Amino acid sequence: MSAQADVQLRDFKSLFSLNGKVAVVTGGSRGLGLHAASGLLQAGCSKVFITSRKAKACEEACEALNALPCNGKAISIPADLAKLGEVERLVKEVEKHTDKVDILFANAGATWGAPFDEHPENAFQKVMDLNVKSVFVCSQKFAPLLRKAGTVEDPSRIVITASIAGIGIGTLGANATFGYSASKAAVLHLARNLAAELGPQNILTTSIAPGFFPTKMASGLMEMTGGVKALADATPNKRLGMPEDIAGTVVYLCSRAGSHVNGGHIVLDGGSVVATSKL
């Protein structure tokens, strides 16, 4: 067979397009969620619903997103996903604007640092509830809208934010993050289970495992572990994560370019897990 006959890549120009897609971004008012939402809108999404616990933060995020040079619209729907019934309310609010959802970016999360002997039981529970249970409940309650949008040729997507703390060992000592590390390991495996369950229903599930990104949630821990420069110097590619790293990865996973990825995860840490594991 000739090389010319082998070249069957169709419509490369649209390979990373999300034209007309509808997305829901939990924990979308700042940090990684806001980076992802920016990428989703600029890749062509017609609607991106931003949800987080604080109404003002959601509104400010949507104002910034709607100032971007794109045709889509960011819509604020505040919700505290750790509370019983809030996910169901979120779904009903989304349904006021659309009858289908193409993309669920499950990014809402929390952390807690404390020495092993002093780590509060309720703090561990709080982290597990938001980082694991709410991801499952969001996936479950949004599944009907995701099924409506998905086809074999163009499946819907669930993308879950995990962490390299769920792959290697998280922070130990005075600011140990036992609950956070356990929760991120749990959602990596939850994504695999959801991929097997929902894949035949035209919903693909993947996860990302970021390392340190300069975000509000990570800033305190970053200072305690040496600061931005020290952490960057300790990373094989000599920098921390940037907004483009999250936005580009999420757009890839949610576009036609990522339509054969299901159950896997992408590590976004510049190689820090690899560097640690060789010691």
TrEMBL record:
Single Gene Ontology MF annotation: oxidoreductase activity
The keyword NADP is annotated on this UniProt entry: yes
UniProt similarity note: Belongs to the short-chain dehydrogenases/reductases (SDR) family.
Protein name: Uncharacterized protein
Classification via PANTHER family: 7-ALPHA-HYDROXYSTEROID DEHYDROGENASE (PTHR43618), OXIDOREDUCTASE, SHORT-CHAIN DEHYDROGENASE_REDUCTASE FAMILY (AFU_ORTHOLOGUE AFUA_1G14540) (PTHR43618:SF12)
A family per Pfam: adh_short_C2
Organism: Recurvomyces mirabilis
Keyword tags: NADP, Oxidoreductase
